[in-house]
Design goal:
six-stranded mixed beta sheet; Rossmann fold; binds P-hydroxybenzoic acid; alpha/beta; 397 residues; ten-stranded mixed beta sheet; 2 domains; 14 helices
């Protein structure tokens, strides 16, 4: 029996029990009993390893939204169950299973790493558990493997890199190479960059890769001068990005560095002067002065003691999406038809600007062109406006 079936069965149990109890009018009804129970939210995120800070920022931001809502969502207390996924794909199905089957979470928010997301996706596609992806970009989750219970408030790997590819071609660069970890996020972002760059008249060489989460970049950097490229694109994130950008600068290569914005996101302080001038494409940037962003950055800093970044924004929006869905069904998460209707139609005032859900339940959003300057990823333009992932192969509705 899948969890969705179980939920439907237990919901019937609750209604039946409620009908019997309602006869004695001072006793709460079944619905009231069910709604009085805290809503269990599983947070399956990396709290250790190269992506630890990403998982922490997502978590802090979810807690910021909950505090703004007075500690409850649609009248429901929230009980978080946190699980460190360590960004280890091999443990992902078992970890997701623990949250879904043992802890019986009502909602799963996770994760950061695309490979781990595949493990979660396998489990929740089976169980029907409402799942909100606050980072991992693997395209399949909102393309051919899309599922009605899975929503993403971050990006597809294709999106930021496609935006950067458009911008790189517009700048007149003609020949490039993508450097990355050899896993879904690296390959899919490389493909997004290539698609846009070649459409704009550029030429891509085969990717230069190393296994995740290794950081022995020197053998890759040593190949670059011989390739005669006029720009280098890259996907790295977290601790690995800090080191790559520093080593790239130290190597004194003539080709400028660009990439998916994760390369310089939440990392600038550690990268220092090495990041100066690096241009990236991302759905967030410093200096976006909309009121939502200004308020969010203040609240996040109070909570976390450090500045917000894209990971924080994605976590905040995962919580905003959940709140909106629960409010539409008065906290009755069992009302799946109306819950999913509300989530699919969501228009969210995000710190990144307005966002909405594509038919495949991925975010449609602006991809900004940013330039790292003086410790900030300054927005210097819009690389791709209101960009939706193509959602290829997704058959929802
Ligand atoms: C991913 O694995 O999908 C991923 C990880 C870290 C990022 C972006 C994407 O910053």
């Amino acid at each position: 029996m899948t969890a969705a079936t179980k939920r439907r069965v237990s919901r019937r149990g609750v209604i039946k029990g409620g009908a019997a109890l309602a006869a004695a009018s001072t006793v709460p009804t079944g619905w009231a009993i069910a709604q009085a129970k805290p809503l269990k939210v599983g947070l399956m995120l990396p709290y250790s390893g190269t992506f630890a800070k990403l998982g922490e920022n997502i978590t802090f931001a979810i807690e910021v939204l909950l505090a703004e809502k007075g500690g409850k969502l649609a009248g429901r207390e929230i009980q978080f169950i946190k699980l460190d996924d360590e960004s280890k794909p091999e443990n992902a199905p078992q970890n997701a299973d623990r949250l879904v089957k043992r802890d019986q979470v009502d909602v799963l928010i996770g994760t950061v790493h695309s490979g781990v997301q595949m493990g979660i996706h396998k489990v929740v596609s089976e169980s029907g558990t409402l799942t909100i992806v606050p980072n991992a970009g693997n395209n399949a989750v909102t393309r051919d493997l899309c599922a009605k219970n899975v929503f993403r408030t971050s990006f597809s790997n294709w999106q930021p890199a496609y935006g950067m590819g458009v911008a790189a071609a517009k700048k007149g660069y003609k020949k490039s190479v993508w450097v990355t970890w050899d896993y879904a996020a690296g390959a899919e972002s490389g493909a997004g960059f290539k698609e846009a760059f070649e459409k704009g008249g550029g030429q891509m060489l085969p990717n230069l890769t190393l296994p995740f989460p290794q950081t022995n970049f020197q053998p890759l950097l040593a190949q670059i001068p011989g390739l005669d490229v006029d720009v280098v694109g890259a996907f790295f994130a977290g601790g690995g990005a800090v080191q790559f950008v520093k080593e790239y600068a130290a190597a004194g290569l003539k080709a400028p560095l660009c990439g998916s914005g994760f390369l310089t996101e939440g990392t600038l302080e550690a990268q220092g002067a090495a990041a100066e001038g690096v241009e990236t494409g991302l759905h967030y940037g410093d200096g976006l002065d909309n009121p939502k962003n200004i308020g969010f950055r203040r609240a996040f800093k109070d909570k976390a003691g450090r500045d917000a970044d894209v990971y924080a924004v994605q976590g905040y929006d995962a919580a905003q999406l959940l709140a909106l869905g629960l409010e539409a069904v008065n906290g009755k998460i069992e009302d799946e038809a109306n819950l999913y209707k509300a989530l699919r139609a969501a228009k969210i005032d995000s710190p990144r600007g307005p966002i909405s859900m594509s038919p495949a339940q991925n975010v449609t959003q602006n991809i900004y062109l940013r330039k790292a300057e003086g410790g900030q990823n300054k927005v210097v333009g819009i690389a791709a406006e209101n960009l939706a992932d193509p959602g290829t192969g997704c058959k929802l509705v």
